[in-house]
Amino acid sequence: MNFDLLFEKAKAAGIEDIQITYAGGTELEVEVFNGAIEKYQIADSARLRAKGIYDGKMGTVTTEIINEDVFDFLVESIVNSAKVINSVDEVFIYEGDKEYPEVEGLFNPKLNDVEAKRKIEDTIELAKIVKAQDERINMVQAFYSQETTNVLIQNSKGLKLEKKVNVALFGVYAIASDGKDQRTAIEFKFSNDYEDYDFLKLAEVAAKKACSLLGATPCDSGEYEILLSAGASNSLLHPYLSMFSADAVQKDVSLLKGKVGELIANDLITIVDDPFKKQSPKSGAFDSEGVATTYKELVSKGKLTGYMHNLKTAKKAGVKSTGNAVGGGVSSSNFYIKAGDLNYDEAVKSMNKGLIITDLAGTHAGANPISGDFSLQASGFLVENGEIIKPVALITVAGNYLELLKDVTGVCDDLKFNFGFVGSPSLRIKKLVVAGK
Amino acid sequence: MLDKLLIKKVLEAALTTNADFAEVFIEDKFQTDISLLSSEIQSVNNAKEFGVGVRVAKGYQRVYGYTNSQKEEDLVKLATDLAQSFPGEPLNIEFDLKELKKGNTHTIKLLPSEVSIDDKASVVKRADVAARAYSEEISQVAVRFQDYVQNIWLANTEGTYVSDVRVRTRLSINSVAADENTKQSGFNGPGGLWGFEFYSDVINVEEAAHEASRIAVTMLHADECPSGKMPVVIDNGFGGVIFHEAVGHSLEATSVAKGASVFSGKKGQKIASELITAIDDGTIANAWGSATYDDEGNLQKRRVLIKEGVLNSYMIDKLNAKRMNDECTHSGRRQSYKYAPTSRMTNTYIDNGESTFDEIIAATEFGLYAKKMGGGSVNPATGDFNFAVGEGYMIRDGKIAEPVRGATLVGTGSEALLHVDMVGNNLLTAQGMCGSASGSIPTDVGQPTIRLSEITVGGRKGAN
Asked: Which residues in chain B are closer than 8 Å to A86, comparing Cβ atoms?
């Protein structure tokens, strides 16, 4: 597509500068339920986003019909939307950085070369392996999904950046039943190296998790020492990411406003945003504004060092963009609490009376990023004298996320990421309030 | 949109192997989003979406694909590729696409395209002004306006050939109240299957904004909620999310058909208190979750899910009907052409009972009054659900007492509704977005005020 024509039309309409972001690609999804193919989905799609500065304001528009016939509509929309915006923030179209980091392994052509047929057969095989783990596993869903995306950013200041990414995911959802109780577990792994998957390991972990929760009941209400497993911890961290966005700070909706240089967490905690992580589609050399990405510790040994910035928030704060522009705002790339050196089993043994929380549900509703408060449905295991006593479910754990970060007494070595590329190792926490029976 | 002959060609290409069913779904959508923060319009975005989804099936096995292309060669190739999943001889299914049937059940007065962006932005600004005027403790207000026109066309090899237009709009207000110690937020998001007349004929923008601020300010002065098992009175309107999460999702064929729901095989059995009658109705005029046709080309309808405590009907889409050997209830929905349709809720509510609100509170010696609910989630396989209380109060000696915050309710769907011991007579619905297998779709939840004799309440303050 010749975007120069669009740029010319924009200029003629009085748009000072204009940038397009094109993202297009293919998708393959396979789902197997109890041995049969439940879902097979293929797709080929693209989306074009354009933004332009008109009268000092940034107008935006999006289209899935991508041809030269829509250029007039794009220009008109940008102008009309800019006319309504009355934000006084300075806006930018970026001419580009001198250098961009080399990010290897974003695209692996071998992944796309593996035939769809083999991917389907392997998904069926994965489901079989899970089922074979334990006779109490009565239903298994196995899934494979693969995405290949081409991104092009081009603007009227001469910037042109391209990136090609592919990633695949194998996962399982296991339902265990003992005739009376039914429990579920989900396990998955991302990679764009097809030979990188260990089905047996995925199966073992999922089956063990679902079965070991059978017969779970609420524990007594009260305060407990907590071992928040890596999977539960990353799902809890996710809704609180926005606290680290300079946009949220500047709009006074972040609890971390004015806290740079202060200890906001126990000194065992280091939090990182890493755009260079391997096997993640969120990795890359540039952000959505075309700014070179950077690796940064936002929290170093408990101390808040800064926020994530785009061009606009950086200008306001008088700092450099950290390369965290996502769409029109600020967000993370691969965001995680760094692994520590505590062994998970040792952490269990260290607890006198406590709870291991393996799952948290409802974080989209029960975790409030503005107050930091959370109250969430949880399941896991009761521990006494370092031994697991029984599985626990239908309880809630409640607290405040910043207080939780301060109350961390141990960080495990088992860093794990969720579907949104937010990661955490298991964390041992002084106490949380538990509601059960 | 796409020519009928072309659609027929695509369907025929899909049946060149052993498949017994094919469907083409075409979507053309235009959406406008306006967002405001710090009393300034921050962004305005128009989005033009277009795509075609092709579904091919044999029995209840199906495959799906989509593309943005309108070209014949691309569409026929997609259908042919999908057909390869069902190797074998073609079944020579003959079908005819007759006159296009156009959905027209819901009347729209002012189409989004007939209203200027300035007029839309002024609604957003009014909401901001009103939300801030409510109290000096309001420190920040975020407002989002959304409207769209979704045109869909659906054709299948059973001869279905329909089109539908869904015009929807929603105004979401998020108010933040702050003091030196904490920040608390309040949300209100009215919407419907309406055009711009929604903001003059249906809702009062200022009142809607006040409501969000009222919740934020109330919660700023609230105590932490105690935890433990106790009676809970859940108010009408968005309180209906308890039914949606605790029971509704587990009545969708998506989980029932696989035997993966706690309610699989329980039709005709008592699954709730006899005070409960619950309905899913996709025909309510101009309701947020309504449409003329579902996303499989069937006319939307009203389904009585639970009648006086007894499970009466599941929500079933076309393919799951074959799998369950039950009737399709016209419940196929999807977010967009990027999703194959599956069974979903529309406007789902618990019907009116006989108690008044005052009677319910007066009959409760101690407990939690959940006036506004937040969102929640459920695991259909275990039935375990949770949801957040946006605005809560303690009930003491039959009277509403101090406000409390940070409460979450957890329970098991198979039991929760058995514990309902009072149902009010003040049915009200509210709008939400529901996320599941076929994407995020607009749904109404609703109920009159109800009381659960006992449920687990989680809060930061320990047991009473």
From this structure: 40-41
Minimal C-alpha gap between B339 and chain A (Å): 9
Residues of A in contact with B37 (CB under 8 A): 251
Do β-strands B366-378 and B226-234 pair in parallel, antiparallel, or remain unpaired? parallel
Question: Which secondary-structure segment (H or E) carries B79?
Answer: helix B72-83
**Residue B197 identity:** E
The DSSP symbol for B200 reads I
Of A337-341, A348-352, A409-413, B409-413, the one with minimum mean pLDDT is B409-413
- Could you say which of B42, B64, B387 has the minimum Cβ distance to residue A362? B387
| Strands A57-63 and B40-58, sheet pairing | parallel
Give B260's Cβ-side CA count (13 Å radius).
24
Q: Give the CB-side neighbour count of residue A292, counting CA atoms within 13 A.
A: 10
Show contacts of A76-81: CB within 8 Å, 24+ apart. Answer: A76/A13, A77/B46, A78/A10, A78/A15, A78/A18, A78/A50, A78/A51, A78/A52, A78/A54, A79/A13, A79/A14, A79/A15, A79/A52, A79/A54, A80/B44, A80/B46, A80/B117, A81/B43, A81/B44, A81/B45, A81/B46, A81/B117
Residue B406 · residue B258 · CB < 8 Å: no
- Amino acid in the structure at residue A320: K
pTM of the model: 0.92
Q: Name residues whose C-beta falls within 8 Å of residue B434's C-beta, 6 or more positions apart in sequence.
A: B244, B344, B345, B440, B441, B442, B443
- Structure tokens that stand for B256 in this block: 């029932």
Q: What's the confidence (pLDDT) of residue B387?
A: 86
State pLDDT tens for residues B198-226. Answer: 999 999 999 999 999 999 999 999 999 99
B276 backbone dihedrals φ, ψ, rounded to 5°: -100, 120
Query: Which of B323, B460, B461 is the best substitution to test chain A (most A C-beta atoms within 10 A)?
Result: B460
Nearest to B407 by CA among B368, B367, B452: B368
Nearest to B217 by CA among B136, B159, B328: B136
Strand pairing partners for A399?
A: A374
Percent with pLDDT over 90 in chain A: 92
- Say which residues have a Cβ less than 8 Å from residue B175's Cβ, sequence separation at least 6: B131, B134, B138, B140, B141, B185, B186, B187, B209, B212, B213, B215, B216
- Judge: A398–B408 Cβ closer than 8 Å, yes or no: yes
* Tens-digit pLDDT profile for residues A138-190: 999 999 999 999 999 999 999 999 999 999 999 999 999 998 889 999 999 99
Interface test with A, best of B45, B63, B256, B372 (most A CBs within 10 A): B45
- Using a CB-CB cut-off of 8 Å, the residues of chain B touching A433 are 227, 458-462
Strand spans (E) along A220-352: 222-228, 271-273, 296-300, 303-304, 325-326, 329-330, 335-337
3-state secondary structure at position B125: helix
Beta pairing class for A427-435 and A222-228: antiparallel
What pLDDT band is residue A35 in, cutting at 50, 70 and 90? confident
Strands of B257-300, DSSP E: 278-281
The tens digit of pLDDT for each residue in A67-98 reads 999 999 999 999 999 999 999 889 999 999 99
Which phi and psi (to 5°) does residue B290 adopt?
A: -85, 165
CB B316 within 8 Å of CB B253: yes
- Pick from A42, A373, A395: which is nearest to B65 by CB? A42
